[in-house]
């Protein structure tokens, strides 16, 4: 048998005329498209981890801040606060605690009013301004949150999870030289792709190989 | 449950192979052909891959079944993967004669390929003499393929990986290369094709196995 020369004009499957740029674009699109589950799992894990972290970390700060809070809450009048501050509270820390507690708890509002009164009346305002912030910690984190707030995942945790998920997905999709699509395989090997078979269960494979029932006669 | 698109997978691959044979001028001969055409021989389609375990057997069996429905001649699926042990449950593993005996004897005489489903689809095992080295010898390979060509319109060879195909590559009319999208790298596939010296004329096409979730067209997918 002597095969004749191939007919260049004959119709049929052709090798892809995609460019490397097309292939790269397809792979980039595939990162969120094919790995949405992985990314979502990472976001959830990030949120869960942040929730768990703050749940465990917050009681420590609560314990540290309790003396200051108790002092403020127990103060019968505005005049009592300077005494408490002098005795055992770092003025900077107390100011920070008072300012940060403002939005959530009723006692914080009254404490803030009292602090304002104090700052107008004597030289404590200057002391509060000159004093370093409590331990250099961000104000929002140095204040213990109520249980409901602590149970909520933080945005930073979710964002970290999203970032991690995207990185893992990109690593899986963009890394290596595997041929991930028919267009890429055709482009890489210069031959047409006759078919692309998804990952099938053993049962589905058996079903595909089962002989089909004969078509009824068109009588 | 297999869906409609999945049911159309192998018919589509079969059509691609038939079109390729047509373009190469080696289309399968109709059984009712007369004269010169009647003396023509069956066409050999080799299903291979760059390495073992990429899904050759699955593709070869599906392709043979599809081809049996798409043309009028008899089709035989032949287990030529001498480089690996026969699959469990293979009815030909218990000492039955097969391709290796045909390669040795040069005749189908006394051998009865098993019918599978469709009345035009047959199946032939590797036989008890199967050795990887046998595929490297052009003489026996030519003898075996000649016997099969005389008996069938299309012969679908479930072959070893490209580096183990030996003389089969040179004597097949078309090759279908199976690629596992999870394992096969571009470099490996290119290297295997270059070493096999399989020109574009005989490479009918590729079958991408374990294809990942496809990207829709509106997102720039295939």
Task: Give structural notes.
The complex is a heterodimer of chains A (219) and B (222). Chain A is elongated and about 85 Å long. Chain A has one domain (20-177). In chain A, helix 1 crosses helix 9 and helix 2 packs antiparallel against helix 9. In chain A, 26% of the residues are buried. Chain A contains 11 helices and 1 strand. Chain A has 219 residues and is mostly helical. Helices cover 64% and strands 3% of the residues of chain A. In chain B, 51% of the residues are buried. Chain B contains 7 helices and 7 strands; from the N terminus they run H-H-E-H-E-H-E-E-H-E-H-E-H-E. Chain B has 222 residues and is of the alpha/beta class. Chain B has a single domain (40-219), classed as 3-Layer(aba) Sandwich (Rossmann fold), CATH 3.40.50.300. The chains are: A mainly alpha (219), B alpha/beta (222). Chains A and B meet through helix 1, helix 10, strand 1 and helix 11 of A and helix 2, helix 3, strand 6, helix 7 and strand 7 of B. Strand 1 of chain A pairs parallel with strand 7 (203-211) of chain B, so a sheet runs across the interface.
Question: What's this model, at a glance?
Answer:
The complex is a heterodimer of chains A (219) and B (222). Chain A has 219 residues and is mostly helical.
Helix content bin of chain B = 25-40%
CATH architecture of chain B: 3-Layer(aba) Sandwich
The helix count of chain A comes to 11
Query: How many domains make up the 3D coordinates of chain B?
Result: 1
| End-to-end Cα distance of chain B | 25 Å
Strand content of chain A: under 5%
Calculate Rg of chain B over CA atoms.
17 Å
Computed over alpha carbons, the radius of gyration of chain A is 34 Å
Largest interface: A-B, 49 and 63 residues
The ordered H/E elements of chain A are: HHHHHHHHHHEH
In what range is the share of β-strand residues of chain B? 15-25%
Any idea of the CATH class of chain B?
A: Alpha Beta
């Amino acid at each position: 048998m002597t095969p004749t020369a191939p007919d260049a004009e004959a119709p049929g499957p052709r090798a892809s005329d995609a460019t490397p740029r097309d292939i790269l674009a397809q792979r980039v699109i595939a990162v969120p498209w094919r790995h949405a589950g992985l990314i979502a799992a990472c976001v959830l894990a990030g949120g869960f981890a942040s929730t768990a972290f703050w749940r465990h970390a917050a009681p420590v700060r609560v314990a540290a801040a309790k003396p200051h809070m108790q002092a403020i809450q127990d103060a019968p009048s505005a005049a009592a606060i300077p005494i408490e501050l002098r005795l055992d509270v770092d003025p900077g820390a107390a100011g920070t605690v008072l300012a940060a507690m403002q939005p959530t708890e009723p006692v914080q509002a009254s404490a803030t009013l009292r602090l304002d009164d104090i700052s107008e009346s004597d030289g404590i305002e200057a002391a509060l301004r000159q004093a370093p912030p409590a331990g250099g910690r961000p104000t929002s984190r140095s204040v213990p949150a109520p249980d409901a707030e602590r149970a909520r995942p933080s945005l930073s945790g979710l964002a970290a999870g999203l970032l991690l998920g995207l990185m893992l997905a990109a690593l899986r999709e963009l890394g290596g030289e595997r041929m991930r699509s028919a267009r890429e395989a055709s482009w890489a090997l210069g031959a047409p792709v006759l078919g692309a078979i998804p990952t099938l269960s053993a049962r589905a494979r058996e079903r595909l190989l089962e002989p089909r029932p004969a078509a009824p006669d068109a009588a | 449950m297999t869906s409609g698109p999945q049911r159309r997978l192998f018919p589509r691959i079969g059509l691609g192979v038939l079109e390729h044979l047509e373009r190469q001028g080696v289309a399968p001969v109709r059984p009712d052909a007369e004269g010169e055409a009647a003396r023509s021989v069956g066409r050999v389609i080799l299903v291979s891959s760059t390495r073992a375990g990429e899904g050759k057997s699955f593709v070869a069996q599906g392709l043979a079944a599809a081809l049996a429905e798409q043309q009028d001649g008899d089709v035989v699926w032949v287990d030529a993967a001498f480089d690996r042990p026969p699959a469990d449950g293979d009815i030909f593993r218990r000492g039955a004669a097969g391709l290796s005996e045909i390669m040795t004897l040069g005749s189908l005489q006394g051998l009865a390929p098993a019918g599978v489903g469709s009345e035009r689809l047959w199946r032939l095992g590797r036989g008890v003499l199967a050795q990887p080295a046998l595929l490297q010898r052009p003489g026996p390979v030519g003898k075996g393929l000649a016997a099969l060509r005389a008996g069938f319109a299309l012969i679908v060879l479930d072959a070893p990986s490209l580096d183990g195909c030996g003389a089969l590559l040179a004597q097949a009319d078309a090759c279908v290369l199976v690629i596992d999208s999870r394992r096969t790298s571009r470099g490996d596939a290119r290297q295997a094709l270059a070493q096999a010296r399989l020109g574009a004329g005989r490479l009918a096409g590729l079958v991408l196995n374990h294809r990942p979730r496809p990207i829709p067209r509106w997102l720039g997918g295939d």
